[in-house]
Design goal:
The chain is rod-shaped, with a radius of gyration of 23 Å. With 59 residues, it is mainly alpha-helical. It has one domain. The model has no long low-confidence stretch (mean pLDDT 91).
């Protein structure tokens, strides 16, 4: 996008910064999701796991 900006309007408004900002926000959120438990739901209890097994097996 920066190359398109350079070749079309190098003296104009630097509009690719919005794309770079959005990409950067996405990278940060992906890093937070990968290396922390902020977006991870709580682990299910053994009782919840057993209820789900019973529900799926028809007991």
């Amino acid at each position: 996008m920066t190359l398109i900006w350079v070749f079309t309007t190098p003296d104009g408004f630097y509009w690719p910064m919005f794309l770079l900002l959005a990409w950067g926000i996405g990278l940060v959120l992906q890093g937070v999701d990968a290396f922390t438990s902020v977006f991870t739901p709580a682990q299910p209890s053994e009782a919840q796991i057993q209820r789900e097994i019973d529900r799926l097996t028809g007991r």
